[in-house]
């Protein structure tokens, strides 16, 4: 189940790269995927790739939680 969720985030970030590049990069780099963000191509979103055995969240933590991607305004 976790594999599917992480794969969905990987694919979504790749497909969003041309439209919201910084946010897509933040999503992708929140995990330790083997391919560097700079090397990711649009076609990579169509491929299911094996995840590393040590897959983990690498995003910045604030008070033990992942920093919000889109923080609330006001």
Strand fraction: 5-15%
Head-to-tail CA distance between termini = 36 Å
* SSE arrangement, N to C: HHEE
Number of helices: 2
Q: Which runs of at least 5 residues are low in confidence (pLDDT < 50)? A: none
The biggest beta sheet reads:
2 strands, antiparallel
The radius of gyration over CA amounts to 13 Å
What is the strand tally?
A: 2
**Shape label:** globular
The structure class reads mainly alpha
Q: Give the fraction of residues assigned to helices.
A: 25-40%
Round the mean pLDDT to the nearest integer and report it: 88
Identify the strand order in the major beta sheet. Answer: 1-2
Polypeptide structure, described:
With 74 residues, the protein is mainly α. The protein is built from 2 helices and 2 strands, in the order ααββ. It has helices at 2-16, 21-28, and strands spanning 61-62, 65-66. The longest helix has 15 residues, at 2-16. The radius of gyration is 13 Å and the shape is globular. The protein starts with a helix and ends in an 8-residue tail after the last strand. 8% of the residues are buried.
């Amino acid at each position: 189940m976790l594999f599917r969720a992480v794969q969905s985030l990987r694919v979504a970030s790749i497909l969003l790269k041309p439209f919201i590049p910084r946010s897509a990069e933040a999503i992708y780099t929140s995990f330790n995927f083997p391919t560097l963000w700079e090397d990711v191509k649009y076609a990579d979103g169509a491929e299911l790739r094996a995840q590393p055995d040590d897959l983990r969240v690498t995003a910045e933590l604030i008070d033990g939680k992942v920093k919000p991607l889109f923080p609330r305004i006001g």
